[in-house]
């Protein structure tokens, strides 16, 4: 079962440690304490402690998360330590401290006291060298637009990486904050002609939008701004005077939104009122605004286009109406032509002005997009028609033929296509909207008196929850934020976040996740993570980032888009010229020319049709829309796929390397057998063992302590005897003195090193345990081996069936583990894996992955621990079990939130289905253009007399984009393989 910790992504800090308490340290001056509930600003902190410093140490000898946890714990015990983070992968420790209490040498000595070699790294800097900024871009129509913006970013000094997603209309830029600011990035977008809206700066801070009523002057808003800036923890304030909106960025550890509202309402003698800005999610509101824009534009275009269509194609065949429209006003200029000219002009220049501005922006930066094709095609039809009617008005004999219906109907059909396209594109990101809707709208805030009794209850907007708030969760309601239980008992349904189907029991001290549902009892919780820090927000951000990332296959369409529009313009001009010259030199029979046209007009229609039928949009949308839907479907099923690259690699996987503990097994060790070789009361035996192991955070140690608690069920709080001279021996076990008895708990190698003989009976018990896939722990007291504790980590239900199904999908499975050979072989045999590597260090796992890749395999690695991270990074696709460590999840390409092995198959199958859809989309896009352009150019006309009018070509062009998006939307009907639906786990049939 996944926990809230999974989503913190604060990697580098893990809860499993082989090390225990350190020996007593020299006495240092203690840090000053603050009254409970009092937070201080960074300036106040400096005045009390002095200026903080940062030191980075190279730490040699760390091999796993246990080592990192031991070093981190030791450092934090020192006075004057503000923060300490240990990176086991890069063998580094970063410490932020106050020099008035501790110095670098003290910290270095402390690390070496733990048993590792430490060296101070001088050249590290306090400055961040990389930051990620997300920006929404309005006005992009095709891949040419997104490529233009992306190129503009890459030309800016300091930009390290930039990607622009057409489907999501967003940009993600990685830049050096020492060289430029995000405002420069916004300017770059504006310079390319598009509108830019900042989504996030990537800085570690929270943000809230507030609306202020009662503000009538600019001075009032400035007074409010000054009041807010004076608050500790406020980072930045942006003001929109027109909307009376304040955007406040702040440090959630120090202050929160309710403080801002209180300050605003206490400013100006209480005449100001503040509230959360009444606006939905920025992306959704922007999408709705875009939908409304195209809907209104289309409806207005119909108001003018329908009369144009009727006068040119319907009324001309109705006696009476035809005579009225043919009445001449000036020379050969008729009433019908004047009506069509007047009605089509607003469509061309007012309703269709978007295409002019889009064309100008593109051409100004040396590129051409879909707007250029539409503008050229409609202008050719419109201005030729203007020329024709003006000539008719000045000539007593010239009979004009106008194409006003072509230009107006073209624009109308394209607007209809864009309207349907943005409607469909909005549905591709429904997964994110559903995730965000998991959070409740309101929460019940509790206030307590000095004795801990509830003094007041208040219903507030859930966005106003601050850290350390006490929140009441009633039965049947959603948990408002991440936190832990401070009172009450209940069962919580966490399936929407973790995938755990059964409600999870919660009592005092247990963690809860925002968005989950409280089933029965009342709970009081203490908020720990709010806003952007919550598990739900982390998932949403992960899915959004995945939808931003481009699949490598999309680069093909991006390359084509650079040349597509110029090539179409050349083809269009060539088509017109070929038909015009053919007509002028009588290369085809005059009977081919319709009675209402001449050869020039016929050639012009062919040229315009070619120009407007070509569709670069369909090519640009083929990949990103499928990736968006695919990643959204995955997220809804508990499979978080980090973008197109992961999808593309996963669909090629033919070899999977599995870790054992927590991946193939449950990851929750339990004691299954105890064998004593001396006469001793079992309760006394486990009291001594637990007293020694309680100082260790190793999973096996925790299993022993939990089991020992069963002998103390009558005691509410198990306080174990004091363990003196505690020592943790990395990878082997622990030593301690309990009740004046020397207790050693560990493996056979530790016993032999300590000079303790291991009898034949104990060897037999160990061998038997290994055959049963169990881990044997030896216990000696005062130099005599007393017993063996057998610990089992049971295989996950359905693991064997999953391995079998992978084999049927032509995917080979391997097992790589750090456990002993006996246990590894027993587990492999149980699940049906033949290829096993045991006693492997983290680097050995990565080497195995690289070895398989060198043989031509596309390798996926499935793991859950910090020691799996190198292999997860080395693999073509890293899959992290959701209940695993943060660093493993950060390193992985795909996160299996449910910690369910079936989802390995779901991830591979979904990626294959998604890429099958991408191939189909490209088939439609390319096939449409390859077939449509020749037909529009008149390839069938000489043989069948069929020609494609420009307005029909425009309708077909609009339909092509819609068809590609709808094709991608069909992925929402994805069903996992039927064989998984019939998978039997422990005699129970599992249904999807």
TrEMBL record:
InterPro entries linked to this entry: ATPase_P-typ_cyto_dom_N, ATPase_P-typ_P_site, ATPase_P-typ_TM_dom_sf, ATPase_P-typ_transduc_dom_A_sf, ATPase_P-type_domA, HAD-like_sf, HAD_sf, Heavy-metal-associated_CS
Main location: membrane
GO annotation, biological process: detoxification of copper ion; plant-type hypersensitive response; transmembrane transport
Keyword Secreted included in the entry's annotation: no
Cellular component GO terms held in the UniProt record: plasma membrane
Its membrane topology: Multi-pass membrane protein; Peripheral membrane protein
Keyword annotations from UniProtKB, A to Z: ATP-binding, Copper, Copper transport, Ion transport, Membrane, Metal-binding, Nucleotide-binding, Repeat, Translocase, Transmembrane, Transmembrane helix, Transport
NCBIfam families in alphabetical order: ATPase-IB_hvy, ATPase_P-type, copper ion binding protein
Protein name as it appears in the record: P-type Cu(+) transporter
């Amino acid at each position: 079962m996944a926990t809230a910790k999974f989503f913190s992504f604060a990697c580098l800090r893990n809860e499993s440690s082989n090390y225990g308490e350190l020996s007593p340290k020299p006495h240092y001056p203690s840090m000053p304490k603050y009254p409970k509930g009092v937070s201080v600003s960074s300036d106040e902190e400096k005045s009390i402690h002095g200026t903080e410093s940062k030191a980075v140490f190279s730490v040699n000898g760390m091999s796993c998360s246990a080592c990192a946890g031991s070093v981190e714990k030791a450092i934090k015990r020192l006075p004057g330590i503000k923060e300490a983070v240990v990176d086991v992968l890069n063998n580094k420790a970063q410490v932020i401290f106050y020099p008035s209490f501790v110095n670098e040498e003290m910290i270095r000595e402390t690390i070496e006291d733990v048993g590792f070699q430490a060296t101070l790294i001088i050249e590290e800097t306090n400055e961040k060298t990389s930051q990620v900024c997300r920006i929404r871009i309005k006005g992009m129509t095709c891949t040419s637009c997104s490529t233009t913006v992306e190129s503009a970013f890459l030309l800016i000094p300091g930009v390290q990486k930039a990607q622009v997603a057409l489907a999501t209309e967003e940009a993600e830029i990685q830049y050096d904050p020492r060289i430029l600011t995000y405002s420069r990035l916004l300017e770059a977008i504006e310079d390319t002609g598009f509108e830019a809206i900042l989504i996030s700066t990537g800085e570690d801070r929270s943000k809230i939008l507030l609306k202020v009523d009662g503000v009538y002057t600019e001075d009032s808003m400035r007074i409010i701004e000054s009041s807010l800036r004076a608050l500790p923890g406020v980072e930045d304030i942006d003001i929109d005077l027109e909307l009376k909106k304040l955007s406040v960025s702040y440090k959630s550890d120090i202050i929160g939104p309710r403080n801002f509202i209180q300050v605003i309402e206490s400013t100006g003698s209480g005449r100001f009122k503040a509230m959360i800005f009444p606006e939905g999610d920025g992306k959704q509101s922007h999408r709705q605004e875009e939908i409304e824009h195209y809907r209104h534009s289309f409806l207005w275009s119909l108001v003018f286009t329908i009369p144009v269509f009727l006068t040119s194609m319907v009324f001309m065949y109705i006696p009476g109406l035809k005579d009225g429209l043919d009445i001449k006003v000036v020379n050969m200029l008729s009433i019908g032509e004047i009506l069509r000219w007047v009605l089509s002009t607003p469509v061309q220049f007012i309703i269709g002005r978007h295409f002019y501005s889009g064309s100008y922006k593109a051409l100004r930066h040396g590129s051409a997009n879909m707007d250029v094709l539409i503008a050229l095609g409609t202008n050719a039809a419109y201005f030729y028609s203007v020329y024709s009617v003006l000539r008719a008005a000045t000539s007593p004999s010239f009979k004009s033929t106008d194409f006003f219906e072509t230009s107006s109907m073209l624009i109308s059909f394209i607007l209809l296509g864009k309207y349907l396209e943005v409607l469909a594109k909005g549905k591709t990101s429904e997964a994110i909207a559903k995730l965000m809707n998991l959070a409740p709208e309101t929460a019940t805030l509790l206030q307590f008196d000095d004795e801990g009794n509830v003094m007041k209850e208040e219903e507030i907007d859930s966005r106003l929850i601050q850290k350390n708030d006490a929140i009441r969760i009633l039965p049947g309601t959603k948990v408002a934020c991440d936190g832990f239980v401070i009172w009450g008992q209940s069962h919580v349904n966490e399936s929407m976040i973790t995938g755990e189907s059964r409600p999870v029991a919660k009592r005092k001290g247990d963690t809860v996740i925002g968005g989950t549902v409280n089933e029965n009892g009342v709970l009081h919780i203490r908020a720990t993570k709010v806003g952007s820090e919550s598990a739900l927000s982390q998932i949403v951000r992960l899915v959004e980032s995945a939808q931003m990332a481009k699949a490598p296959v999309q680069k093909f369409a991006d390359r084509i888009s650079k040349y597509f529009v110029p090539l179409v313009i050349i083809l269009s001009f060539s088509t017109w010229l070929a038909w015009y010259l053919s007509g002028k030199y009588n290369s085809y029979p005059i009977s081919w020319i319709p009675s209402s046209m001449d050869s020039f007009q016929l050639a012009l229609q062919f040229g315009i049709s070619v120009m407007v039928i070509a569709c670069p949009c369909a090519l640009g949308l083929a990949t990103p829309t499928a990736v968006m839907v695919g990643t959204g479907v995955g997220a809804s099923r508990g499979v978080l796929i980090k973008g197109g690259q992961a999808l593309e690699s996963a669909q090629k996987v033919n070899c999977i390397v599995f870790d054992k503990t927590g991946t193939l097994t449950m990851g929750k060790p339990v004691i299954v057998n105890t064998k004593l070789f001396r006469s001793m009361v079992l309760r006394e035996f486990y009291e001594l063992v637990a007293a020694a192991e309680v100082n260790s955070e190793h999973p096996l140690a925790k299993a022993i302590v939990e089991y020992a608690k069963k002998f103390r069920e009558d005691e509410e709080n198990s306080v174990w005897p004091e363990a003196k001279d505690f020592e943790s021996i990395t990878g082997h076990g622990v030593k301690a003195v309990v009740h004046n008895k020397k207790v050693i708990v560990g493996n056979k190698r530790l016993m032999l090193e300590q000079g303790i003989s291991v009898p034949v009976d104990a060897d037999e018990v160990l061998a038997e345990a290994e055959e049963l896939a169990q881990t044997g722990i030896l216990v000696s007291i005062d130099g005599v081996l007393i017993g063996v504790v057998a610990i089992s980590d049971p295989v996950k239900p359905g693991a064997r069936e999953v391995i079998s199904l992978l084999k049927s999908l032509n995917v080979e499975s391997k097992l790589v583990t750090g456990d002993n050979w006996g246990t590894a072989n027993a587990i492999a045999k149980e699940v049906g894996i033949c290829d096993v590597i045991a006693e492997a260090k983290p680097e050995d796992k990565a080497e195995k992955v690289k070895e398989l890749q060198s043989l031509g395999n596309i390798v996926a690695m499935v793991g859950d621990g910090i020691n799996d991270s190198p292999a997860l990074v080395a693999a073509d696709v890293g899959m992290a079990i959701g209940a695993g460590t943060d660093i493993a999840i950060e390193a992985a390409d795909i996160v299996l939130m449910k910690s369910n092995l079936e989802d390995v198959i779901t991830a591979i199958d979904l990626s294959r289905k998604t890429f099958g859809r991408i191939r189909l989309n490209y088939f439609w896009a390319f096939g449409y253009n390859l077939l449509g352009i020749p037909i529009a150019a008149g390839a069938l006309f000489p043989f069948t007399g069929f020609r494609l009018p420009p307005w029909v070509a425009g309708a077909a062009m609009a339909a092509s984009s819609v068809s590609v998006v709808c094709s991608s939307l069909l992925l929402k009907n994805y069903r996992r393989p039927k064989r998984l639906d019939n998978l039997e786990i422990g005699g129970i049939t599992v249904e999807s």
